[in-house]
């Protein structure tokens, strides 16, 4: 949503209603999820989603560092989201910036809603997210990767947490924005869902849309999250060589 001249803005929707990469409005980018990619971590996952590539590693429950963050009645969930300096083609300053701090915070808060932290008092559950290649929607890809990594680490949770961004592009509500749609679109709305309860545990918005459009965006995002959820469960089943349970509750 930068300040650019009209001549720089790509045609985001074709007359047939197809997007820059040929997707329909309600279509996700291709997504591949692998659980257990890193052997050293207690749990890990790699997510390739469109042109995003994101690795997540989970350690814990383990001793809390720094010690003053320790909580007597529950585990603290510490999350570090980082985008590699080579993850984008424009120059990005390496290291911790305000954007990474904000994303780390909202992801940690999303997991606080689902992890049974009271089972592990005075410990830390450390979630690391490294974005190796970025093309919009990396906080959602990071959440998906970290959620599978938490399950891979055997951390007890209410449910997995699928996430996706919805937005308004060329006047239309679209699922799973890519970089150009995020940059030149009218709104970007990342969200994360707890499928079991239907609760949203992350919801942010940049840009503008009407109340009616917001309602449609939430419906589309929830539908997208449910598709991602199936992929997350499939990745875990593949890792542990499980076959689906009849009724789909696995
Ligand atoms: P998200 O990645 O969750 O969509 P943003 O909306 O902040 O988060 O970023 C959108 C996209 O903009 C990123 O995925 C990335 O492709 C790009 N981007 C973000 N920060 C930078 C940066 N400092 N330099 C270059 N590109 C960036």
Please give the structural blueprint.
Elements: E1 31-35, E2 43-49, E3 52-62, E4 76-83, H1 98-112, E5 124-133, H2 138-152, E6 163-169, E7 172-175, H3 179-184, E8 187-194, E9 199-203, E10 206-207, H4 211-239
Parallel strand pairs: 4-5
Antiparallel strand pairs: 1-2, 2-3, 3-5, 6-7, 6-8, 8-9, 8-10
The chain binds adenosine-5'-diphosphate.
Residues 88, 90, 92, 99, 134-139, 179, 182, 188, 190 line the site of adenosine-5'-diphosphate.
Broad structural category: alpha+beta
The helix content is 25-40%
- CATH topology type: Ribosomal Protein S5, domain 2
Instruction: Estimate the strand proportion.
Output: 25-35%
Number of domains: 1
Query: Quick one: how many beta strands?
Result: 10
User: With helices defined by DSSP (H or I, 4 residues minimum), what is the helix count?
Assistant: 4
What is the name of the CATH architecture?
2-Layer Sandwich
> Low-confidence spans: pLDDT under 50, at least 5 residues?
none
Bound molecules: adenosine-5'-diphosphate
Quick one: CATH superfamily?
GHMP Kinase, N-terminal domain
- Major sheet characteristics: 5 strands, mixed
CATH classification, class level: Alpha Beta
Main sheet: which strands, in order across? 1-2-3-5-4
Summed over residues and divided by their number, the pLDDT gives a mean of 94
Order of helices and strands: EEEEHEHEEHEEEH
Radius of gyration: 18 Å
| End-to-end separation | 40 Å
Approximate shape: globular
């Amino acid at each position: 949503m930068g300040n650019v001249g009209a001549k720089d803005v790509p045609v985001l929707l074709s007359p047939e209603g197809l997007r820059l990469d040929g997707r329909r409005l309600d279509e996700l980018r291709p997504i591949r999820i692998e659980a257990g990619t890193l052997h050293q971590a207690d749990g890990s996952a790699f997510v390739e989603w469109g042109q995003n590539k994101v690795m997540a590693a989970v350690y814990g429950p383990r001793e809390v560092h720094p010690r003053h963050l320790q909580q007597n009645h529950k585990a603290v969930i510490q999350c570090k989201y980082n985008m590699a300096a080579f993850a984008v083609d424009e120059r990005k300053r390496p290291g911790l910036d305000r954007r990474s701090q904000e994303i780390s915070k909202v992801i940690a808060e999303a997991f606080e809603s689902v992890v049974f932290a009271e089972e592990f008092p005075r410990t830390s559950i450390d979630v690391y997210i490294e974005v190796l290649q970025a093309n919009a929607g990396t906080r959602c890809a990071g959440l998906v990767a970290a959620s599978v990594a938490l399950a891979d680490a055997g951390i007890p949770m209410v449910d997995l947490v699928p996430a996706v961004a919805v937005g308004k592009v060329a006047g239309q509500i679209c699922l799973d924005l890519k970089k150009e749609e995020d940059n030149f679109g009218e709104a970007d709305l990342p969200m994360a869902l707890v499928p079991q309860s239907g609760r949203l545990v992350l919801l942010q918005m940049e840009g503008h849309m009407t109340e009616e459009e917001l309602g449609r965006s939430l419906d589309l995002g929830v539908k997208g999250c449910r598709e991602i959820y199936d992929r997350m469960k499939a990745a875990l089943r593949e890792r542990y060589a499980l076959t689906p349970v009849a009724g789909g509750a696995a």
